[in-house]
C-alpha cells in the first residue's frame, strides 16, 4: 500500500511517496539509458556552488570617455558616442545628428532616452557608485562630477584619483567586456548571422539549426527578428500579446505573451555585436558568470545594437555569451569581424523546464524577468533551459477576465503552451506549477478550496497524460504580509457602521479582521457580502476615501492545502513523479519563507538579511508598496533558493 511521507527540506516541506526508490551511483555514460533521477542529480551536483547565481560576477563598466563639452545648444551637430554635460549631469549621444529646439536633456533616468532633433541622449551619471572601464582597469566614482575634456582618464591603483571634477577610486582589473549601446551597426563587423534564418513572418525557428541557442520558450519570426514566445493569453488578450492572431501547429487565433527570453552564442571574437529589436533591460552572462551590474544594462531604441568589446578582458578567445532579456525584445542578428566565427553552443543535456503561474512567476516588480524565482532556481540546480508560461492575475480557477487583459486560466493555456514548447525543445522533463494566490476569492462560491482541489487534480491528470515521464512539482506561492485589498469607499451608512467598498473584489472580504480607511484602522465586526462590511465604531463620512484591508495568511493556507491535497491523491494512486513544495502552510518551527513587513516604501537595496533561516518576522526588503504582494530581486532570489533546496530532496528519491 502506498503511503505519504513528510520530509523537511530547508524551510520547505516536500511530500514524497514512501515507495519511491533511491538510485545508486549514476552511470558515467550520460546516454539515453540514464534515468531521470540520475540525470537530474548529476546536473544538480555539478551546479552546486558553480552556477551563474553563485559564481563571482565579472566587473567592468561603460568605457571612460573624455567630455566633449557642455550641451551645445539648438541646431548644433553632435557626434554619436560623445559625452556632453547639462545641469551637472553627463549624457551620452548614442545616436548622432543635429540637436533640435526643445532644449538640453534633464532626465536622470537610465531606463529611457531623450530625443533632441536628430540626437538621442541617455543619462549616464556620473554619480557616486558608477563604474567605468579604462585601460584594463575598473574605477568607481567616489564624488560625482564631470570628466576631463582631455587626457587619459583615471589611471593607477589609488583610492583617490582626480579626473576633471570627479574623484575616482581603483576597483580592480577589468574582467567584463565593455558594453556599448549604439543606434547603428559597426561596419567593421562584416560577418553577420541572421537570427531569423531567412524564414517568413510567424514561422517557427527550429532548435539547433543555426548559430544561436534560444531559451525561454519557442522562438518565432516577428518584425524581422527572432522572438521567444511564452503563454497564449487568448481569447481576451486585448492587444496584450507580443505575437497577435498567430496560427501555430494547427492552433489558430493565438495571442502570445513574451516573458523571460535569452539567446546564447559561442564565438572567439574580440568584438561581438547583437542587433536587437526593442528597448529592454538586459543581463549579460559570459562563460556562466554574470557581468556586473546585473539588470543595469538598458537597450535603447528600435532597432539598437549591443556591442561587447573583450579587448581588455581576455582578448580574442572562445567564449559562451548569453544575453537575457524580458518581454518582446527580438534578436535580428549577430555580427563579428571578418576572421571570426559563430557557433551553436551545444548542450549535452538539451531539455526544457516549464513553469506556469501568476504575476509572481512572471517576476513582476523584479529588475528584469531574468531575476524571477524560476530562472534563479533552474541555474541553482543546473537545468539547461527555462520557460515561464505564467500570466498575471490568473490562476487554476481564475481566468482574470474581464477585469484584466487576459481571459484564460492555467488549464486554458498551459497544455497548448507545453505542446508548442515540446515541438521546439522536446518534452519537458521538469514542470512547475505555482499554487496561485489569485484563486483565493473568498466569498465567491466558484472559488472555494474544494473547487480549487478539483480543478488542480484535473489539471495535474491532464499534464500527466500528455507527459508521463516528467517530474511535476506544485510550488506554494509567495504570500507577503502586503497581500491586501485596496480601493475606494463608495458609500457609508453611518448609523449602522456599514461600509461599502469598490475596487477590491479580487479576493473578496470574508476573513477580513481590520480595515484602514484614510490611515485610520477600524476592527471589522462582520462581513455582509463580497463588498460590504460592518466596522466597530462610527463609519462616519468615509465616502470617496481610500481603504486598505490586510488579507489573513490563514486564507492562503487553506487554498494551498487544497492544491496539496490534489497532489496527495495522485501520489496515493501511484504517481511517484508528482510532488508539492509547501510554503504558506508550513508549521513552526518553520515559517513561510516570504512574509515581508507590510507596505514598505523603500527597499534597502541589498540581500543582507534575505537568508535568515527560520525568521518569524520575515524580511521587509521583500515587499514594496508599489508592488503589493510582488517581490524585490532579493525576494525572488530567496524563493528560488528555497525551491532549489526542496527540489534537491525530491530528486534524491527518484529512480
Automatic annotation (TrEMBL):
Keyword check for Signal: yes
Gene3D superfamilies recorded: SGNH hydrolase (3.40.50.1110)
Keywords, in A-Z order: Signal
Signal found in the keyword field: yes
InterPro entries: SGNH_hydro_sf
Taxonomy, superkingdom: Bacteria
GO MF: hydrolase activity, acting on ester bonds
Residues of the signal peptide: 1-23
Protein name per UniProt: SGNH hydrolase-type esterase domain-containing protein
Gene source species: Methylocella tundrae
Amino acid at each position: 500500500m502506498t503511503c505519504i511521507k513528510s520530509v523537511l527540506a530547508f524551510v520547505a516541506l516536500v511530500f514524497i511517496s514512501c515507495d519511491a526508490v533511491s538510485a545508486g551511483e549514476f552511470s558515467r555514460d550520460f546516454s539515453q539509458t540514464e534515468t531521470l533521477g540520475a540525470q537530474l542529480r548529476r546536473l544538480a551536483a555539478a551546479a552546486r556552488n558553480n552556477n551563474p547565481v553563485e559564481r563571482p560576477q565579472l566587473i567592468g563598466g561603460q568605457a571612460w570617455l573624455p567630455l566633449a563639452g557642455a550641451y551645445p545648444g539648438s541646431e548644433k551637430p553632435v557626434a554619436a558616442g560623445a559625452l556632453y554635460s547639462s545641469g551637472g549631469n553627463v549624457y551620452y549621444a548614442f545616436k548622432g545628428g543635429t540637436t533640435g529646439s526643445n532644449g538640453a536633456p534633464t532626465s536622470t533616468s537610465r531606463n529611457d532616452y531623450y530625443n533632441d532633433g536628430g540626437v538621442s541622449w541617455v543619462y549616464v551619471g556620473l554619480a557616486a557608485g558608477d563604474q567605468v572601464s579604462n585601460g584594463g582597469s575598473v574605477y568607481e566614482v567616489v564624488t560625482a562630477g564631470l570628466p576631463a575634456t582631455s587626457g587619459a582618464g583615471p589611471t593607477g591603483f589609488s583610492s583617490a584619483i582626480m579626473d576633471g571634477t570627479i574623484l575616482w577610486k581603483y576597483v580592480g582589473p577589468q574582467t567584463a567586456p565593455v558594453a556599448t549601446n549604439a543606434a547603428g551597426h559597426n561596419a567593421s563587423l562584416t560577418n553577420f548571422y541572421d537570427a531569423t534564418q531567412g524564414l517568413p513572418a510567424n514561422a517557427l525557428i527550429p532548435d539547433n539549426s543555426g548559430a544561436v541557442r534560444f531559451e525561454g520558450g519557442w522562438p518565432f519570426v516577428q518584425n524581422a527578428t527572432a522572438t521567444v514566445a511564452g503563454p497564449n493569453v487568448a481569447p481576451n488578450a486585448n492587444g496584450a500579446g507580443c505575437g497577435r492572431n498567430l496560427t501555430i501547429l494547427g492552433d489558430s487565433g493565438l495571442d502570445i505573451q513574451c516573458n523571460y527570453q535569452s539567446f546564447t552564442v559561442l564565438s572567439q571574437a574580440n568584438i561581438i555585436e547583437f542587433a536587437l529589436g526593442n528597448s529592454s533591460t538586459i543581463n549579460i552572462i559570459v562563460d556562466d558568470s554574470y557581468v556586473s551590474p546585473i539588470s543595469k544594462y538598458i537597450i535603447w531604441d528600435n532597432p539598437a545594437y549591443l556591442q561587447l568589446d573583450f579587448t581588455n578582458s581576455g582578448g580574442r578567445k572562445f567564449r559562451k555569451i548569453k544575453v537575457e532579456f524580458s518581454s518582446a525584445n527580438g534578436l535580428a542578428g549577430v555580427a563579428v569581424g571578418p576572421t571570426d566565427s559563430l557557433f551553436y553552443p551545444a548542450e549535452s543535456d538539451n531539455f526544457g523546464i516549464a513553469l506556469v503561474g501568476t504575476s509572481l512567476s512572471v517576476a513582476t516588480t523584479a529588475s528584469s524577468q531574468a531575476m524571477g524565482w524560476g530562472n534563479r532556481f533552474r541555474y541553482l540546480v543546473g537545468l539547461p533551459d527555462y520557460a515561464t508560461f505564467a500570466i498575471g492575475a490568473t490562476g487554476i480557477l481564475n481566468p482574470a477576465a474581464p477585469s484584466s487583459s487576459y481571459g484564460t486560466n492555467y488549464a486554458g493555456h498551459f497544455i497548448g503552451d507545453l505542446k508548442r514548447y515540446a515541438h521546439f525543445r522536446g518534452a519537458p522533463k521538469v514542470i512547475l506549477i505555482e499554487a496561485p494566490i489569485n484563486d483565493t476569492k473568498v466569498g465567491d462560491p466558484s472559488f472555494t478550496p474544494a473547487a480549487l482541489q478539483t480543478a488542480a487534480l484535473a489539471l495535474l491528470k491532464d499534464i500527466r497524460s500528455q507527459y508521463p515521464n516528467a517530474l511535476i512539482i506544485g510550488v506554494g506561492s509567495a504570500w507577503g504580509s502586503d497581500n491586501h485589498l485596496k480601493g475606494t469607499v463608495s458609500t457609508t451608512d453611518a448609523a449602522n457602521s456599514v461600509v461599502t467598498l469598490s475596487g477590491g473584489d479580487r479576493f473578496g472580504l470574508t476573513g477580513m479582521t481590520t480595515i484602514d480607511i484614510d490611515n485610520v484602522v477600524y476592527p471589522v465586526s462582520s462581513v455582509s457580502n463580497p463588498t460590504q462590511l460592518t466596522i466597530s465604531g462610527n463609519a462616519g463620512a468615509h465616502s470617496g476615501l481610500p481603504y486598505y484591508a490586510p488579507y489573513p495568511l490563514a486564507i492562503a493556507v487553506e487554498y494551498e492545502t487544497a492544491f496539496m491535497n490534489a497532489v496527495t491523491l495522485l501520489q496515493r494512486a501511484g504517481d511517484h513523479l508528482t510532488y508539492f513544495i509547501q510554503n504558506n502552510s508550513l508549521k513552526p518551527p518553520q515559517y513561510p519563507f516570504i512574509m515581508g513587513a507590510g507596505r514598505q516604501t523603500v527597499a534597502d537595496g541589498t540581500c543582507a538579511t534575505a537568508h535568515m533561516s527560520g525568521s518569524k518576522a520575515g524580511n521587509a526588503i521583500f515587499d514594496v508598496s508599489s508592488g503589493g504582494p510582488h517581490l524585490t530581486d532579493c525576494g525572488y532570489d530567496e524563493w528560488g533558493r528555497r525551491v532549489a533546496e526542496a527540489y534537491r530532496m525530491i530528486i534524491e528519491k527518484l529512480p
